[in-house]
Amino acid sequence: MAYQHVRTASYMPDPTQGPFPVLRHTLSLPAHWEEPLGQVRDHGRPEGRWHGPRRIPTREINQLIRTTAPDVVTVASNATFGTDSPWLYCTEPFPAPVTNLYAATWLRNLPRDSDDPGARRLLAECFRELDTESLAWRADTIDLLEQQPSPGGTAKPTRLVYRLLPDELAARIARQGAYEHGGRQLTFHQVAGVGGGYDAGSSSAELMSWPPIEYRPTGRGGERKPSYYAATLRVGVRTVPFSPVPRIHLSAGIRRFVTGKVWMPFRKGVSVYLLPEISLVPDAPVSRRLSVAMLQWRNGTTDWRQGGPSGMLAAVAALDGLPSVDRLVKEADHWIGDGKDGIRLAVGHQAAMGRHPIGTGLMPSERRRLIEWAEQALAPELVPAPKLQRSRYGRPPVRQLTKRPSMPKNATTEELAALLERTERTAADNARVRRAALAATLDGTDLVGFLVHQTDDQRDRLVATAESALGLTESRREQGPETWVWEAEELTVRLHAHPLGELGSPLGAEDRPPRAGQEHDQAIRERRGRVAEAMTRLREQVPGARIALVELEGSEAFQGPARRTDPKYAIRLGCADAGLVTQFIRPLDTAMDTADAEKDAGLRAEAAWADGLRQTGMRLVPQHTLGDRIPSGLNQVAFHLVERRVDGPTGRAQFTPIAVLLRPDAPCVLGRTADTSEWMPYPDLPPDPDRTSAGE
């Protein structure tokens, strides 16, 4: 029987309870510290080359606090000054000597070059001018439900609410006692929060069951090596558009831990969760929260982040309480069981490390039980959000493309023949729909594209896929080996094949990859220019070209330092400079079984063409089934986010929204960026060099 309602793990403030006051001790940086610290920060920076606000970073000291003082909540990625902008929050004030130690450690690590005599002189003057011993914790009462409505009527909690409300609720859950799971009593501990900003993106508080749960899988050879995991709970503050009250969200999951050797991902850190019997910093209070330290691989060696003789961990004498990194990365599970040397810790497993004996996630029934147990701690200030009722208009929208019938395993010969015939009819019908939609989008012009290939095999597969996807078998007028032409009644398609050649070779010199930074940027610029020049020449020979499907090895072929030799990013930018959108496809995987490799390559070719046609602005929007309940002239607007991670090929992050508009009278998808003043066909958007397709 279908469910008539769904209850979410979402909670709202109870309007009968009023404010949610809590007492916290806060630590602020004195206002007169800002100028001398700014001088230390700016020393050695080239004049005229710094753009944007000059902030004094606290990221590293925040991470140190997360490792050694998990009870402290940090609420800023950059220093804030004055009593109106506290930096640290805690339920109990830290001892003054420990507070001074953290402040002094932070100040010593501000200079960009600690060996520079000028930087050392400025730092010494700064220490004389600033009195770290004057830092004092101040008691303050904070309303964890303080908010102001936005102009549109949406709840807008104050920034502190995003960090402190989840922290308070997580503390309540941790005090509830044990949770029963599989005959075990699980004790949940808070996990030290991520240091930094206090917005909705970094505001969740986390709890984790501790100690880790041991799991011993059985097989033909008897019991195998044990694996370890823990249950997790996450508490976060969110808002709902146009709702005057915020929401608290609970989510449940698991965290898996490494056994044996730790595989260190390139240029990334690995989290280590630890609960020492005594504080890692002398004279600091012992915490019941789990600390989080980071291992990092750098310059061929593995060490604690901020470790080493001059690191912050050494400055606060915390390294003495941490195990040897050399042994930890070889025997990660040595400290999981009963703990060793006064500390119990576990190294978090990442998906990049490979397969783990324990699967991800929880079964729905266990997740429900865990959330129902945790929500008891939210009362009386918070109550469950209203249940979601099943819509009276439950019919799904009508897709323009028909789903292919599935093939049962035990079908008879007659049944298979009927299914194959039905599949062929479905494919033909879908091809007619695509062809008509594409013709309407192109409005009388031809679809012209390039197949920039490395192998004839993949080139021919892309040609065959284009022909079948658009139902052009009977319309072929020209058959390779460099040009294919199809002339249907409503649409003409022209494909021109060109070898990728040296444009697809690895970046940098033959004997080594380009160094990160300027050398890598220069290699991208050079390849980008060559690609743009080559594609521009091709477009002059073939007017009207819109898209380039490029055959290139995937990222798996460029691992470790070789990742900077991957030419994909440069090829994409060069094609964009030449006015072409790009879609990449990998060569046939020769490491796979032949049949599996052919099937995989066929699916990739279909996906490449589907994404490529979408980039022309072709629209296949499902038709709603609500009749006249929705106006016939309704416009639909959405946002496509172009994201680039900081660990990508350029080392720079990007987050750019693109608005997408579907108009009933416009056969092409329209788009608009922050730099345009009007809507235009999606393929005609300004060729932003960083624009990527959503399908990649």
Structure description:
It is built from 13 helices and 33 strands. Residues 48-52 and 689-696 have low confidence and may be disordered. With 696 residues, the protein is α+β, with helices and mostly antiparallel strands. Strands 2, 11, 12, 13, 16, 17 and 22 form a seven-stranded antiparallel sheet that branches. It has a six-stranded mixed sheet with strand order 25-26-27-24-28-29, sandwiched between helices. Strands 4-5-3-6 form a four-stranded antiparallel sheet, with helices on both faces. Helix 1 packs antiparallel against helix 4, helix 10 crosses helix 13 and helix 11 crosses helix 12. The relative contact order is 0.08. The chain is globular.
With helices defined by DSSP (H or I, 4 residues minimum), what is the helix count? 13
Quick one: overall form? Answer: globular
Tell me the radius of gyration.
30 Å
Provide the low-confidence segments as ranges: 48-52, 689-696
Helix content: 25-40%
First and last CA, distance: 39 Å
Q: How many β-strand stretches?
A: 33
β-strand amount: 15-25%
The structural class is alpha+beta
